[in-house]
Single-stranded DNA-binding protein (Meiothermus hypogaeus NBRC 106114), 490 residues
Amino acid sequence: MPTNLVLISGVLSKRELRYTPKGTPVLEVSLIGKRAVGENHLFSRADLTFYGKLAEHWADQLADGQAYQAMGRLVYESWEADGVKGSRLRIVGEELFKLENADVREEEKGPVLYGAMNRVILSGGLTADPEIRQTSLKTPVARASLGFSSWDASAGQARSHYIELEAWRDLAVQFADLKKGSQVLLEGSLKTEVWEDKESKAKRYKRLLEVERVTPLARIRSAERSPEEPPMVKGNKVKTKTKAA
Amino acid sequence: MPTNLVLISGVLSKRELRYTPKGTPVLEVSLIGKRAVGENHLFSRADLTFYGKLAEHWADQLADGQAYQAMGRLVYESWEADGVKGSRLRIVGEELFKLENADVREEEKGPVLYGAMNRVILSGGLTADPEIRQTSLKTPVARASLGFSSWDASAGQARSHYIELEAWRDLAVQFADLKKGSQVLLEGSLKTEVWEDKESKAKRYKRLLEVERVTPLARIRSAERSPEEPPMVKGNKVKTKTKAA
C-alpha cells in the first residue's frame, strides 16, 4: 500500500460525536498546537475524524484542555449534490492517545500544546507540472498537486486521493526538475489556507501540504523495453534490432 | 492500526527470488547506504522482503548498483522446529521505486548510496522496565524492548511483534521515566548488531531500533473509574462515594 502517515498532536479544543445513517459512530476532534520552526512557533489546528466503536468510547473520555497524540492518514472525499461539486481532504485518525508530560501553556485564546507534532509522510505522483514563481521578495515558491491511492477493502478496489502542495526556497527549486507524473516521497506538514469567497463572503478553507523534504522516485520497469517494442516473452528475451543510421 | 512505517534507501547489493510451498513469490533484497549523523557517515545495510506478483515482476527489473527507495513495515516472526526456538524481525516491503538523482559513490567494497534513508516510526508498549547504564566514558545508554501489534486479515486476528530498543545520551535519560507497559511513539533507525556465538563460533545478527525521538503516551480510559468500582451504566453515571478518613 502507498505510504500515507499523519502524526498530529495538540490540545483538544472540540469533540463531536455523530452517527452515519447506517449507525457507524463518527468522532470529530480538533487539536491545537504550536511547533518550533527555526525561532518561531507556528500555530496549527487540525481536525481529525475517527470512525467506529472505539471512537464512540473515546468520545466519553476525552477532556478539553488535555493534550493528545493522533496517528492517521489522509483521505480525499468528493461528491456531487444538486449539481454542485464538493470535495474535502480528511485526516482519518486510526490511533489516539493522551500525551504524557505535555508542555501545555495557557494563552489568550485558550490552552496550546508547545512542541506539537504536525507531520505527513506520503508517496504518490504529481497530477500536473509544478508552477514555480517568486514572491515580491524574490523567494521561490512551488505549487503542485499530488495524486495518491489507497485500497478500499469494502469496495474491493483502489481509491484516488489528491492534495495540494506548497514548497518554499530550496525545496521550490527541487520541484522545478519534476513534472506531471513524477513519482515522489514527500515529508511535510499540514496547513490550512483560509480566504473569503468574493461572492458569498463566506470563509473558505483549503488544506494543503507544506513540503519539507522531497525524494524523486521512478517506477521500476523493464529497462530494455521501449514502447515500440513487442512485449518480452518469459525466458525468451527479444533482442532489440538496431537500425543503421 | 498501530503506526508501523519503515523508509529505507540504498544501492542494491543482493536480490533473490524464491517461492513459498504455496507458490507465493518472495523477493529478498539488500540495500546499502550511508547516512549523515552529525559529521559522520553511518553505514547501513538493510535486508527487505517483498511478497506477491509485484515482487516477482521486480525481481527481473532490479539492477545491481542502482539505488532504490523502499517503504514497508516491521514484522516479527517466531517458530519452533525440532524443539529449537527461533525468531526474526523482518522488514516487509510494500513499495519499491528507483531513486532519481541518487548520490551513488564507488567505494572499496562497492557502490554506496550517500544520504540514504533509514527511518522507522512505530507505536507500541514497553515489554519490561528499561535498563539504563553508563558506558566507561559515562555516556548514558538505555536498553528496552517494544511490543507492537498488527491486524492479520487472513487469520482474522491481531498478531504480536517485538523489537529491541537502544537509546543514547539525553534519549536514554528519557527512558528512565518509562516502565513496563508504557505506551510510546518512537522514531529511529534500524541497526544490526553482529557478534560471534561462543560455542559454535557462528556469526549472529540482531536487528534493533536506535531511538531518535520518543513521545510518551497513555491509553485513553475512564478517568473516574478504578478497578474496584462497578462498570458505568450508559447515561447513568455511578457516583463515587468518598469515605471519611
